[in-house]
Amino acid sequence: MKNIILLRRRCFMKKIFKNYKQTIILLISLLIGACIGLIFKEKASILSPLGDLFLNMMFVLIVPLIFLTITTSIAKITHPKRLGKVLTSILTVFIITSLVAVLVGIVSTYSFKLVNPKDTASIKTSMSNDNAQDVKLSLLERTVSAISVEDFSLILSKNNILALVIFSIFVGIAISKLGNEAKPFKDLLESANKVINKVLEFAFMYAPIGLGCYFASLIGTFGNEIAIGYLKTFIIYLVVSILFYLIIYSIYAYIAGGKKGLKSYWKNIIPATATSIATCSSAASIPVNMDCSKKIGVSNDIAETTIPLGTSFHKDGSLIGSVFKIMFLAYLFGIDVTSTASVIKIITTSVIANLLIVAVPVGGGTISEMMIITLMGFPIASLPILTVIATIIDAPATMLNVVGDTASSMLVSRMVDGKKWLKQKI
Description:
mainly alpha
């Protein structure tokens, strides 16, 4: 009996290591990089070219990745025969709960300063954008400049990400509208998308070396404030995610089904929670998550619609994470984000950026981070900083992304089937 238990434990640990292998290796490389930076200080900048190599690989891949991911996703859209009330309820719940997640992220990061560098001016200078926009441009001119370009070749530049996204959306819609006439082109793009994602996987094999060297140079040049900032970011995010998981989702469950709904929620949510943490993938958690929703009392049609849609378009953990990324860079570069306009910009950027994250571990996050940099006007060279943050908060963020869909399915049931939805199911 003991041997069986030990064997199961070993299998479980092997499964955990397999799912977190890339993250563990990356964290070890960052730790080594931090030690090198702290020991050798400015001399560690000799490793900067190795970090720049990874950065350049990301810049080369980001344009085709964005174009192919968006066009193929939109081209595949079908129109399932669902009740309008169900889809409207899902949209309403997703919008409201997403805003709650963003506001929680804003309050958390306003209450605790994530990073406190001594010299923001030197950091700004070292990571400055050569292609920064003219500050004298009007709001309308800035908007037009951001969403369009004057030549097709310019849309293939990493400096025009928003214009590329809009162009990709229209191409995807055109493919979808043309149907079979555009099938050869659609098949070509889908094949190209698989190829570029495979190339991205190859590039991420170099990530431990590239990010480790970049981190060593960063710590060596600017001191240990950034390393401490990462640690603070992880701790604060972890605490916020646990509180969000325990309190906010309990409130959603209570609103949806009262005391019985709350009891049923906590009775059945653990498998989805454990799966999300063990796999670190929203997509891999879909079957278990749908099963949990159905056991809670959510009807089959709502569970089978809400969970898959939520996996792609509703990510509480990633939304909170986006706010943390924005605020980390804002504090790092000494940018004031206390005005109402800044708060609205943070909310808008977080929502837009997370709509571009696909339900797989590779690719989607990079697109989201580039969108944050573009919309907020941060230096493009800050991409690796956001990549590190994404890595350290990955597990708790995935947990919230998955469990948030379960809680949302309960709220949708309340809106569609009325107050007695849980009793009817039971």
